[in-house]
Design a protein that fits this description.
two-stranded antiparallel sheet
């Protein structure tokens, strides 16, 4: 019976410590809406890039934005390498924001980003930063070649994963 009392005492002391350490923290989070997107040159520039390069994988978009920045137009993203590919958490958040407000859509099968009809209307209404437009138009062929090459590589990776998953499911049935 003595063994039973000790755990109960420990539980009570743990509960007291846990109760004393609990705090309510309130943080403010900026809510994104269409008006804020329309006022952001960075988000409109990103939307413009997707519109000019057609359906594009998000990983490819990271590479293209880094390329655009290396050509002299600073979009405000900082990149680091993940494997062989550049990655920017801020760019990822901006893509999520554009998806959230409905200016971008994600193609279901290969998860490529495309500009929605609302996004096209927003581009017609507000446009993209002039310097970005000039740079993209001057090097559109080069950017399209790089994006299509990267997209093809990603499509092969996705198909390979799908085939391996199908083979594994088939192996479990046998």
């Amino acid at each position: 019976m003595g063994g039973r009392k000790a755990p109960r005492l420990r539980e009570a002391s743990v509960d007291e410590k846990a109760g004393a350490a609990k705090e309510l923290k309130i943080t403010t989070v900026q809510v994104i809406n269409r008006d804020k997107v329309l006022q952001s040159p960075r988000l409109m520039g990103l939307l413009y890039l997707v519109s000019r390069l057609g359906p594009i994988h998000e990983r490819t978009l990271h590479m293209i934005v880094k390329e655009v920045q290396s050509k002299g137009f600073d979009m405000g993203y900082q990149f680091f390498s993940v494997g062989q590919d550049p990655y920017s958490p801020a760019l990822k958040n901006d893509v999520v924001s554009l998806l959230y407000v409905g200016f971008l859509e994600s193609e279901p099968r290969y998860k490529k980003l495309v500009v929605s009809s609302a996004g096209k209307e927003a581009l017609e209404k507000v446009g993209a930063p002039k310097g970005l437009q000039d740079l993209v138009e001057a090097s559109i062929q080069e950017l399209k070649v790089k994006s299509s090459t990267m997209d093809a590589r990603i499509d092969l990776e996705i198909k390979g994963r799908q085939q391996r998953g199908l083979a594994q499911r088939t192996a479990f049935r046998v």
